[in-house]
Amino acid sequence: MNSESRKRIRNLVIGALLTALGILIPMIMPAKIVIGPASFTLASHVPVMAAMFFSPYLTALVAVGTTLGFFISVPVPLIWMRAATHIVVMTAGAWFLKKSPDLVDKKVKLQVFNLILDVFHAGLEALVVLAFYRIGFADTDPQALNNLLLLVFFGGIVHSFVDFNLAFGLCKLLNKIYFVDVFKNAKLKALAE
């Protein structure tokens, strides 16, 4: 078996494990806040954000799997639609990390990337909530909708920021025993310079 086949099999196994975690976390995590259609489950983004440190393709697959996890564990369609935004946001983040792996060695730039990703993530989720109410799937008064949008947006930024750092720490630790693509590529890029 050549190294490319081994890498594909390794990523398939890692993707399966991250997807399983992504399904399990919303089901069993005791640290969960649900306020109407807004929900914040500690570490719920960690599996899909950890996948970003491997590859965009793996990230997309894990995002689909974690969306199914919310579908199974949380009986709120709006939360499922918010989770589906991770397919776009996290895959874009993974693509950027693939193009700029050296970010993992630059703490400030990594946190700037994290914040930009969080704003994009929370903004897209807030747009989904806005569309859900504007199209007429549910009804609420304008002030309550504005409060909900602010909660989803700013709460989402904080939640995503924390989960990204948890995922980064997990991948950094994992990289000490088994190489993680972005960390390996950052090291190769540093050696080439």
UniProtKB/TrEMBL annotation:
Membrane-crossing residues?
A: 12-29, 49-72, 79-97, 112-133, 145-162
| Keyword terms, alphabetized | Membrane, Transmembrane, Transmembrane helix
Q: Does the keyword Chloroplast apply?
A: no
The reply on keyword Transmembrane helix is: yes
Which named protein is this? Niacin transporter NiaX
Q: What is the lineage of its organism?
A: Bacteria, Bacillati, Bacillota, Bacilli, Lactobacillales
